[in-house]
């Protein structure tokens, strides 16, 4: 079952990378493929089993050091790069949105913040803002798909069983 979840997470990660790259090129993927938003829901399919399994293996609040111990070094490094990129992507996304999100009201393209009009947009500006919106989300999807993939595919089994194999009630191993 763990390999199956890893495969689903890898599939979501690869699709997220593709969507992210296309969005970086200025294309609004959601306009051509509205189902792209199912990637947003898909993170729950893989992330919830990751959380439940990791709590069983490592306890409810594992330290960063405990998490690093159960993965090969290259997985930790790649995860760190993806996480740092997601933060940078989010900051750039927020700057580019100018505090709003693109919408269509009465046939006009607008940028609004919780119903408050920020400004009217041209069709090309609207498309650019929509591409930026999907880029912002897909940057987060990268993290939320990579972490379960790495956990279910590369977790070191020998170290991961430490918590579950520990003697109960103070019993000692002979």
Describe this structure in words.
By secondary structure, the protein is mainly α. It has one domain (2-165). The chain is built from 8 helices and 3 strands, in the order H-H-H-H-H-E-E-E-H-H-H. The protein has helices spanning 2-24, 29-32, 38-58, 64-69, 73-97, 123-154, 157-160, 162-165; strands at residues 101-105, 108-113, 116-120. The chain has a 3-stranded antiparallel beta sheet with strand order 1-2-3, with helices on one face. A hairpin with a 2-residue loop joins strand 2 and strand 3 (116-120). Helix 3 (38-58) runs parallel beside helix 6 and helix 5 packs antiparallel against helix 6 (123-154). The radius of gyration is 20 Å and the shape is elongated. The model is unreliable at 159-174 (pLDDT under 50).
